[in-house]
Amino acid sequence: MLKVKNVTKFYGENKAVDNLSFEVKEGEIFGLLGANGAGKTTTFRMIMNLLEPSKGEITLNNKKIDYDVTDSIGFLTEERSLLLKLTVKELMLYYGTLKSMKKDEIITELRKWLKRFKIEDYENRKIKELSKGNKQKIQFISSIIHKPKLLILDEPFSGLDPINVDMFIDVINELKEKGTIIIFSSHQMNHVELFCEKLLILDHGKTIIEGNLKDIKSNYDERKILIKADVTKAELSKLDGVKEITIKGDEIEVKIDDKKYAKNIFEYISKCKNVTKFEVVELSLHEIFTKEVGGNYEK
Questions:
Q1: Domain housing 238
Q2: Residue 273 burial (10 A CB sphere; 0-12, 13-18, 19+)
């Protein structure tokens, strides 16, 4: 288990992280989210023991994270860190050696993952010759080649097409099933909703939302109603609780202040002609994030 307990980090007088606490168990994917400058990168660096907390403690399986423990951690950074003049094989031998792996083990794992990502022929290609998406695959392999107990994924799908995103998703879920502790961070909230049952949102170093995604969503009374029927915006706007109406193709999206209004709107729509859809949905994580963080959110 990863435990972050009452962690604060100062840069001079600037408090980058403010009394942060969370736990992630084996086989869990935990979302750590925030706008640019919220404190995510500082938190990752403290977990990696690249920075020392000003206060508090961070442990992995009840051990303080030091250079011995960091061999058990994989980190896919948002800022890509590949050595472009090396071949894929040379790069992995370098990274694997840093994680205390034997040469034969590195080669075996590398070839397994190259085959999995359908780039077997790239073993002796220079990094600089690869496409952006294939560089991302190599970066990902470098973070998991040593079979880490803790894996930090910061914007893992950057530069990937939908087919390769699905490939990454399959691997991440497999690692979860094998008991890997995973911290997942992305500005793409739909990706976070795919993986994370638990999450925490930082704003200026402080925790503003934390808990199970399902519980977080249910705590907001606002709802959206998706409608397909012969009804006009003018008619809908007269109904109690209607906050905003948006036309999206042949569908109407109605935002309501409180879920209690859904029943009356349903009764009205049920009397309209050609009703093919009436769906009440909770706010998306993107909408919750934007609502809470507001103007601080930058993709």
A1: 221-282
A2: exposed
pLDDT of residue 298 exceeding 80, the answer is: no
Residue ranges with strand state E in 94-180: 150-154
Q: What are phi and psi of 269, to 5 degrees?
A: -65, -35
Q: Look at residue 91 in the predicted model and tell me its pLDDT.
A: 95
Instruction: Give the Å distances, CA to CA, from 70 to 176, 194, 211, 298.
Output: 19, 28, 27, 31
Instruction: Give the pLDDT confidence of 13-40 residue by residue, as tens digits.
Output: 999 999 999 999 999 999 999 988 899 9
Which amino acid, 92?
Answer: M
Residues 95 and 9 in one domain: yes
Q: Please, what is the Cα angle at 1 between 106 and 174, to 5 degrees?
A: 50
Question: 133 and 234: one domain?
Answer: no
Phi and psi, residue 144, nearest 5°: -120, -5
Is 99 part of any domain?
yes
Q: What does the alpha-carbon distance between residue 296 and residue 37 come to, in Å, rounded to a whole number?
A: 9
Amino acid symbol at 60:
L
| Residue closest to 80 by CA, chosen among 126, 142, 125, 30 | 142
- 167 shares a domain with 244: no
187 and 236 belong to one structural domain? no
User: Are residue 173 and residue 236 in the same domain, yes or no?
Assistant: no
Give the count of domains, the chain: 2
Instruction: Give the chain's largest Cα–Cα span.
Output: 71
Banded pLDDT at 297 (limits 50, 70, 90): very low
Average pLDDT in the chain: 92
> What's the rounded mean pLDDT across residues 178-182?
97
Q: Give the whole-angstrom CA distance, residue 148 versus residue 158.
A: 21
Residue 161: inside a domain, yes or no?
yes
Each residue's pLDDT tens digit, 52-70: 999 999 999 999 998 888 8
